[in-house]
């Protein structure tokens, strides 16, 4: 942990753009710096454990038999065979329904994500950097809509989609997903705090059209926030349970989250009456959980790459 | 948060290249001249979003508003629905539960997320910074049914990976861990575990966007890490923090997922009418009373809006500077 | 009210379709006594307003994971009846999915499934009632839709949860009455005799506590504890006297005596306050369950389950539940699933065919049902089959004998008694309090819950 430093700024990130500035103290920090580093290390370690322990337990759970899960040390490793058994049990559930659920989740989340980006990023930009009469009204309305409990919106949205005959079509899930006020606010705050106006003004003087300013100047600078919005939109769609549950009448259209409740309801621990030949065991449920989380983590790792390329790095790509 | 920002203009090499962002917070800037072109662009840019918002936000909200003041057969009911839900024996306890939870949750989230974001941002080793953000985030990927089983085990001292910790608190069984007195803290732990990582990522992004010149200037002025955080980083994150405050308020007042999850895991020992939002859900889908349900939702909205006003004002959320 | 079909199925319509159509039409006509289905709001000939019937249209069937087998068996037996199977969580674990979805369909005025499986016994109470602007979801079954002989073939009392205001709205899939499960090997080893009264049961507990501490004779940590103990004691926790009227009296002698029994046994450790499905229960009590009053499905869910107690073959036996000295034997009931036909169905003939098959046929009930069939004839065969399996010690007559002994003074309202108990009593007894002290509070909680669900409390 010697290289932990309380000096702010990402030297490594910026190394590409300019020679890194070594902190004057170098590696031999003053006592003050060392104690600072120690505190930082301690905080990191404590919270790292807090976030990681349950996940580690869950990963290990997928390798155990139901009995091992209860009888053995929580941090013991089961066996690869145990993992294989759980794997096979999961994919045997309702003739491999899990594959279909994952596919549905991917379809709904990705299409909704595309629509979200196309509508949200320009909206956030316009709210932050252009003048038009309804700007403030739109900001306030967006905020109000974000604060309404979802419970209140289920019935009206269901009736709306029912009126246009969309219930049971993928669009019944994708369209409501595409409305992502959270993302609009993220882009709005980003553009209003991180984009130097002089830059936009300069571009206008250079004869860029308003549209050109957005596509050539603002968007390249906005990579981090686009990555953020994309990621959060994806996660929210991927993890949404109630909307798909209400909008989709057929089980082969379920996304993973709704499927998971079916799995949960097939485990004797949560539904004693399901005890029987077709029941699901807890380690299998743990594996299903891991499967449902993996895509989100992959998307996370992917979007992180864009997140750290801050505005200053983007600015050089003229 | 009344820290004075050191005079950036004086210390930073002014405007060397376009990529040197000036401090974007310059009050009293002359408003941008309107031109018909820009006006039209603005409308065009927000049009898609506006349509979606009307269809999936505004109209449904208005419908809920109408529901809350009408009877089940559609005649005007005035405030009858509100009177009915206020008189429900489950209502006041639920208000109490949510209020206690909200205080614990909001304070711990705001403080810890900002702290952790600053800490992670201060790490110089790139892989470590990435890895810690990743680890903090992982739980955010778990939702709904996937966490029911996890918490059933984690909160049961006899099988929990942190059993020693629970036993240190004197809990011997799952039901003791989730006794009503502990619930606000338990829900805060669950909500923080699943929700903090996402905010840390957002705050980290915000910190990354503070121009390096500003930070350098502070260092040259002899500010240490804590002073830099308080005087520069925090004020520059004001909008982000305000936004997080509002979103967490909304999430807190609409507490639903965590109690629902524990209700399932504990086979109803944690009641499914713990929070107001659960009550709204029960009204709609257990009692078939969508009007009462809408009334609770509208009440929640009013509370959330009133509380948000504070953050909007303090964070300058609508300011276009 | 023309009902658009939910999803256009792609039926394999070939030359047989014509013959099929006329065949199904003939069945429908036979079943309906040749009256053309009127789609007006007036009641059809089965006692509810019918939608226009479309012979051989596809029916949508909602089942939970365990009941997929029933749908598969039906398909195998009736390849010419087009059905569309949808799996859902069966409304288990208080999820209320069934009611949630139906209420939305009611508002949309379309989209209802034709047949629904439910894990709960609380659904008939709402499904039999009109909701604003919509007729009751559940079709009345004993108004001519299902043959009366078939309905009479169900075990006495088993259709109580399906019966509202004297009309039957669902068919029971499996029985869930309580029996006294016991470990014969342990009884022989300890030299104890099986208790036949609750008094003896309590004494047994006291003996076990002193002579073999750590062994248990029951569990009271589950949400269905009142259904096992209080119900069997004729405690009036919820007597549904009319469609929306309920009588609650939890301070009666009947409740008090069982509360005392529980308190004594919990205090001496012979009854545990762990839930039988909690991970720690298995840790602590595998091999230590001497006896346990509980529903019939405990056999497969707890004793003969590798993930629970996993008791070896030849040890576990079933006895008739204990009774209070000098009283008739009555018992309680925990769950037991139900089958519903939608009153909105455009193909009542096929829906009826499916439900009758699932609830009464040997192909499903005897061969595949994990629970004890509620249909008496199938039930007997099922018990015989279980007895032949060699798992149980002694005969299983107790299962058949106790099937019709469920006390009828405990109704099935729209709300869950289990949730009320779990919320008010469970936390008290797990933290050292007594059931006796919470009886009143428990009763009040039931009354409150009944009131917000629209019941007049007596």
TrEMBL record, chain A:
GO CC annotations on file: plasma membrane
Membrane topology field: Multi-pass membrane protein
SUPFAM superfamilies: MetI-like
Metal-binding as UniProt keyword: no
Keywords tagged on the record: Cell membrane, Membrane, Sugar transport, Transmembrane, Transmembrane helix, Transport
Coarse class of the protein's main subcellular location: membrane
Residue stretches spanning the membrane: 38-60, 106-130, 137-159, 171-191, 211-235, 280-302
Keyword Transcription: no
Single GO BP term: transmembrane transport
Residue span(s) of domain ABC transmembrane type-1: 102-303
Residue ranges, annotated region (Disordered): 1-28
Family, as annotated: Belongs to the binding-protein-dependent transport system permease family.
Name by which UniProt lists this protein: Multiple sugar transport system permease protein
Source organism of this protein record: Herbiconiux flava
TrEMBL record, chain B:
Subcellular location: Cell membrane
UniProt entry keywords in alphabetical sequence: Cell membrane, Membrane, Sugar transport, Transmembrane, Transmembrane helix, Transport
PROSITE patterns: ABC_TM1 (PS50928)
Entries under Gene3D superfamilies matching the protein: MetI-like
GO annotation, biological process: transmembrane transport
Family: Belongs to the binding-protein-dependent transport system permease family.
Protein name in the entry: Multiple sugar transport system permease protein
Species per Swiss-Prot/TrEMBL record: Herbiconiux flava
From TrEMBL, chain C:
Keywords from the UniProt entry: Signal, Sugar transport, Transport
InterPro entries in the record: Bact_solute-bd_prot1 (IPR050490), SBP (IPR006059)
Transport listed as a keyword: yes
PROSITE patterns the UniProt entry points to: PROKAR_LIPOPROTEIN
A Pfam family per the record: SBP_bac_1
Signal peptide extent: 1-31
Protein name as it appears in the record: Multiple sugar transport system substrate-binding protein
Species per Swiss-Prot/TrEMBL record: Herbiconiux flava
